[in-house]
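A favour, since you know our structure tokens better than I do. Go ahead and set the record down below.
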Amino acid sequence: MLPSTISSLIGDDLAKVDQHLKSLLESDNPLISQIGNYICQSGGKRVRPILLLLSAQVAGHQTQQTEDYQGQRERAVHLASIIEFIHAATLLHDDVIDNASLRRGSPSANKKWGNHLPVLVGDYLYAISFYLLVKDNDTRIMETVSKATATVTDGEILQLQKCGDLGIREEEYLEIIAKKTSCLMAASCRIGAILGGAQKEQVEALHDYGTDVGIAFQLVDDLLDYISREEKLGKPVNNDLQGGNCTLPLIRTLQVASLQEIERIRQIMSQPILSPDDLAWIVSLIKRYGADKFTLDRAAWYVQRAKERLAVFADSVYRKALFDFSDYIIKRDF
């Protein structure tokens, strides 16, 4: 559950985002509406809309009672919905690439409709997003979103290139998650800053805040893949191990494990399907060497740096809400 400091500020606007997503998905083709609503209304955390709305608030709170601000507030809901469309498109494509069976506790779209339709609906969500951005007609925001979308795809390609590579360095892993996850969160913050009329220094500060929060978010996500439960996470655990993706908990373990343990990990990871016993052994090794705590500490470091980015803003309930959201990111268990 979101901290009350956040829900009290943007709860109404988040509800409007949900309503706006439904209205934007109305189509003469029922499959577009059906699959689009299935992925967009399936219980997502709405992290990117939250970041956009809060960033607009912190940047523009001094004028929040003016008619101009109210207009920008409606626009913020619209743009937050567009960002959520782009995120939903990446999820549809990711689940096909990963051959996923679950998404947010329900069968994934590709499990229900096969691969072809979710890929095409993902393409539709990308296309309609950029059509709506052209109608919005702000080159700063179009540039932000188009650059972020290209970067996300670059990150996904990098991850595929590194799949199964147990020699991946921590810096390479961080580059992947900065591109495939953090980038769209940073773009959300930048858009909010632009809507709030922030100065250049403040725009960059919010963008950097989003980058750091996004990295922390993915670090926690990757850790939860090892230590959470399927019913809590809403998708199968140990997904990264089964898919051959080497994330920070395993990278750290490989740095400190014995040669014999490293060799056994290599043998296990070379198998097409990992047995429950092998998975349990790797998870126990991660915990024994403290790689779980190492990952969480690294996430906390990024959260602290994210908070420091906001020093360019005066103390306010809106800045505090961004502080609270970054803390929420690393304390969540789903």
Residues 10-331 form a domain with the Farnesyl Diphosphate Synthase fold (CATH 1.10.600.10). The first strand starts at residue 102 and ends at 103. The CA atoms of residues 62 and 196 lie 9 Å apart.
